[in-house]
DNA sequence: AAGTGGTCTAGACCACTTT
DNA sequence: AAGTGGTCTAGACCACTTC
């Protein structure tokens, strides 16, 4: 059995028809080539980036996308598989595929790796020390892909677990993107700042990279954390990226690691 | 076109034949069920664990494994996809699939996240301070899944980059597994310790989890790192696991982060 | 030319959710 | 019952490596 009822399709079949996709390797060994499912993935990513489907929303079903792009369901599936692995979307059997969002409790601990030595992680309370518009210093500008002197929003706050001040952090945000962000709005907003960024500034962080160091508390940090100057603190500098790997946040935190530690899995 | 030439197979087809696989959900909502490709994955992992295919070696081709397990190539492929994602194997188009190994330069930086602030990462030189067999203290025993008092090997060493002492670390290894590990052998062995563990003790680390803290140098660490007591140091406690998620190494390191930092990607 | 992994398709059926 | 993602199969062809 299993004869060959005329090749149901050959090579890059339904190809020439609708035109756009399937960038065949124009010249053997050419630079521009990527498999179909990556092209589909790029198209879906573009729709995410453009806001066609917003965080928390359902995206079209695999069958629907397959029809739209004129490819098989399996190819769409592979594209979405990768997006799910990168946490850009979330699949739910029987329901559909949802755009990732920072509005859920789950998401809170994706970027916050500081956990208590004992007990379960919970979200800290924030106290804002300072919020102002300033011109970007050279180092901040470089990390955020801005020009030195461009407008940025500067935020300084202290976060406490169970009333114990544990984190003092400074945030730098591109003024152009976060225009209109006020201290009042942040104080009134409950939950992680990434939720606010997403719902009010259409900016969804997809990835971040951190550099960790050990430092000692200076007078300012010591006072804010209510510890002696010279107390060792874990310094974390985080650059967060949105779609297209565009840097949109610089965060510099000092963590008191007396009752907490930074947890990391190496795979 | 594309008619239906009698279902080439139905449901869990070639099933009843060879027997073993395809644990159907005996009772709807039963606890024991996993898709075929995960069962295949488990079988392959068992062969890796048993040493049937050793680190660096080629495993059988997808077609061959499909024949062996009486499943389609696609199912084997999905199993191997997951193993590759977990870094247990490495695929190379045209050549085959290889068992992951710590013998390659690439592998050196998988677990060593400390990188220089400037310039490219390179591997440090080791100086061994102490190597001895001891009885496991309670905390070490707990982390290594041993009994308090069980034999363990204790190693203390300092690692330098370009002659600058940067890491002082203590390793605790189960005596049963690493029987015969001597200071001489370690000194004479070039390259990362995980390479030695793999080639001489048939122990391949597949994953690790680290807890990071900021501490200050005590007199001992200060002397070894040639810094003043009170200098802030990044403390990293790492538990490394081998196949079956069995803990086989406890490593406690103190990192001088003056010229280096710990780099972490958050996805 | 032969073998290996990589891509793509088509179709069937399963598990879960909603109507 | 209908729709969605999840699994499994079979087969074709491509890209890369080795003989």
Structural features, described:
- The structure is a homodimer of 267-residue chains.
- By secondary structure, chain A is an alpha+beta fold.
- Helix content of chain A is 28%, strand content 31%.
- Chain A has 9 helices and 10 strands.
- Chain A has helices spanning 15-18, 36-50, 62-69, 73-85, 105-111, 138-143, 183-188, 193-201, 219-225; strands spanning 89-92, 96-99, 114-116, 125-135, 151-161, 164-174, 205-216, 232-242, 246-255, 260-266.
- In chain A, strands 4-5-6-9-8-7 form a 6-stranded antiparallel beta sheet.
- In chain A, a hairpin with a 2-residue loop joins strand 5 (151-161) and strand 6 (164-174).
- In chain A, helix 2 (36-50) crosses helix 4.
- Chain A is globular.
- The two termini of chain A are 45 Å apart.
- Mean pLDDT of chain A is 89; it is low at 1-20 and 23-31.
- At the A-B interface, strand 7, strand 8 and strand 10 of A face strand 8, strand 9 and strand 11 of B.
- Chain A binds a DNA duplex (19 and 19 nucleotides) through residues 2, 4, 7-13, 25, 35-37, 61-63, 71-75, 77-78, 80, 91-97.
Task: Write a short abstract of this structure.
The structure is a homodimer of 267-residue chains. Chain A is an alpha+beta fold and 267 residues long. Chain A has helices at residues 15-18, 36-50, 62-69, 73-85, 105-111, 138-143, 183-188, 193-201, 219-225, and strands spanning 89-92, 96-99, 114-116, 125-135, 151-161, 164-174, 205-216, 232-242, 246-255, 260-266.
């Amino acid at each position: 059995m299993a004869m060959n009822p005329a090749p149901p399709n050959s090579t890059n079949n339904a190809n020439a028809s609708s035109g756009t996709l399937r960038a065949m390797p124009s010249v053997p060994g050419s630079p521009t080539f990527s498999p179909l499912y990556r092209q589909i993935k790029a198209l879906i990513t573009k729709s995410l980036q453009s806001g066609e489907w917003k965080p928390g929303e359902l995206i079209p079903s695999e069958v629907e996308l397959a029809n739209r792009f004129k490819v098989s369901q399996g190819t769409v599936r592979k594209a979405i598989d990768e997006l799910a692995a990168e946490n850009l979307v979330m699949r739910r059997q029987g329901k559909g595929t949802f755009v990732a969002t920072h509005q859920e409790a789950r998401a809170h601990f994706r970027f916050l790796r500081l956990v208590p030595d004992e007990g379960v992680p919970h979200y800290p309370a924030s106290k804002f020390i300072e919020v102002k518009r300033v011109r970007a210093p050279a180092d901040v500008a470089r990390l955020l892909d801005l020009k030195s002197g461009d407008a940025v929003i500067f935020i300084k706050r202290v976060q406490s677990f169970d009333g114990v001040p544990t984190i003092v952090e400074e945030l730098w945000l591109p003024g152009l993107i976060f225009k209109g962000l006020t201290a009042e709005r942040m104080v009134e907003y409950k939950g992680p700042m990434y939720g606010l960024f997403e719902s009010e500034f259409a900016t969804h962080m997809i990835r971040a990279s951190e550099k960790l160091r050990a430092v000692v508390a200076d007078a300012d940090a010591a006072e804010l954390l209510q510890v002696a100057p010279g107390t060792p603190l874990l310094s974390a500098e985080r650059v967060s990226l949105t779609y297209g790997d565009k840097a949109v946040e610089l965060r510099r935190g000092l963590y008191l690691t007396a009752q907490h530690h930074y947890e990391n899995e190496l795979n």
